[in-house]
Amino acid sequence: MNPPPDDALWSGGWYRFARRLDSPNFGPRPDAAAVDLIVLHSISLPPGRYGGDEVQALFTNSLDWSAHPYFRQIEGMQVSAHFYVRRGGELWQFVSCDQRAWHAGASRWDGRDNCNDFSVGIELEGLEGQTFEPAQYEALAGLCAAIAQRYPIRGVAGHEHVAPGRKQDPGAGFDWPLLQRSLGWHHSVFP
Known about the structure:
The chain is an alpha/beta fold. The chain is 18% helix and 21% strand. A hairpin with a 2-residue loop joins strand 9 (108-109) and strand 10 (112-113).
């Protein structure tokens, strides 16, 4: 499927209101893939610590594995998400939404495997099961609306929903009803 044309919000799959930091961890989407799913994640590095640049370093393969004992557990990982929403609502983008970011891993949604092929991955700075900040919901709702203007989004799910048993993020602390109300989308779009 050809990427949608650029407009006031998008340029080549890059959202104009996000801070761009290119990740090398991406690839092409399959030719027939329609981007119709948004997958929400939570991340903090090390777990529970906020405000540093470790997530950006992880997604750009520049994390100092010796800087914290936890980093040894993830050493060598090559992952990315399309977007990262900080606690204060700051928005970063690492991969063009026209490309396949490496965020969901082994996954399944709506009878289809390999969610990376047809989804946009959004990481929220946070810890799975914990709560998120109002500024994050505000930024997330605006971003989801912008994504849906460009791509035929049919679903929004958590990593826990596309990889049950393997992943638990964003977890019980994520307010799905708040996101639904903020977007005004039908409840069937959400898990």
